[in-house]
Amino acid sequence: MADAPTRREVASGRRALLLAVPIAALSMAPLVWATISSLRPGEEIFRYLSPFSWRTVIPESVSLDNFVSVLQSSFAPALMNSVIVAFLSVTLGLVVAALAGFALAVLPFPGRGAVFAFMVVCFLVPFEAIAIPLSSTFRDLGLANTYAGLVLPALGNGLSIFLLRQFFMGVPASLAEAGRLDGLSWTGVFRRIYLPLSRGPLIGAGLILFVFQWQSFLWPLLIAPAPGVRVAPVAIADFAQETGVDYGQMFAAAILTAAIPLILLLAFQRHFTGSTASSGSKE
Questions:
Q1: How far, in Å, CA of 94 to CA of 203, rounded?
Q2: Cβ(60)–Cβ(44) under 8 Å?
């Protein structure tokens, strides 16, 4: 049985909680204000910011007109495009990440460490540094304004590969050796031994792929600006026109865009935190 916490540990935990609560409230304040603003008529959004009063956070009237207008505009197809692109990126990206992680953790081939080091270095290079020349290459290949052009750069996500590699390295090598002695190929070892053990890490890697793709703005803006393949983050910017900015609809579109990853993260947070902390089964 675990030892009961001491008074000092309890007091330390309470102090940490007292510090965490206001920090969490401050971090949530922009999201709460954006949500409230999305429910206000456009002319009331900035009316009560100065001086600060109860009307700043509690609207006089609540309306869903901004959400209705957004869903009836060109933003709705853009939101669906984001869903399609994210689904393809997660599905195909998990295949690439799982195979790459397995190879870097288990397969005995020369230069494995050098390949992993090169992958880590490439992952540390900001994508913005290569986005413009890469978009030029994609246009030359005829991938502009296509789902393929949006999805392909997301498939080799270094963080998801790193996560799965670390998990696979924690799986006892004796399991792979036993499978090989039973006549399994390396593909069979991967499918029958490693994959069944990696549900949590696969969910964690899938969430990483989803969030990276869902919040992407620069790459979709460069490679897929056409209305038919425009994604939600790019479409939000369309609410800022030369004649003015419709902040009500912009906030509503932002809330709809943020709601989908928020729901997924809340639903799978247990698997995500477990996957980042786990290092596989131990002998």
A1: 9
A2: yes
Could you tell me where the beta strands, DSSP code E, fall in 11-141?
none
The span from the CA of 226 to the CA of 1, in Å, is 62
Output the six-digit token pair for 183. Answer: 């006549």
R_g of the chain, CA atoms, integer Å: 24
DSSP result, 8-31: HHHHHHHHHHHHHHHHHHHHHHHH
* Residue pair 163/120 in contact by the 8 Å Cβ criterion: no
This model's pTM is above 0.85: no
The tokens describing 273, both together, are 């935190």
Helix/strand/coil percent split, the chain, to 5: 75, 0, 25
Q: Indicate the domain borders of the chain.
A: 7-63, 67-277
Mean pLDDT of 237-257: 81
CB atoms inside a 10 Å sphere around CB 150: 26
Tell me the per-residue pLDDT of 163-192, one tens digit each, with 9 for 90 and over.
Answer: 899 899 888 888 888 888 888 888 899 999
Contact (CB, 8 A) for 33 and 260: no
Look up the CATH number of domain 67-277. Answer: 1.10.3720.10
Helix (H, G, I), strand (E, B) or coil at 168: helix
Give the other-Cβ count within 10 Å of 212's Cβ: 19
> What is the rounded distance in angstroms from the CA atom of residue 256 to the CA atom of residue 31?
12
* DSSP, residue by residue, 220-247: HHHH--STTT--HHHHHGGGEETTEE-H
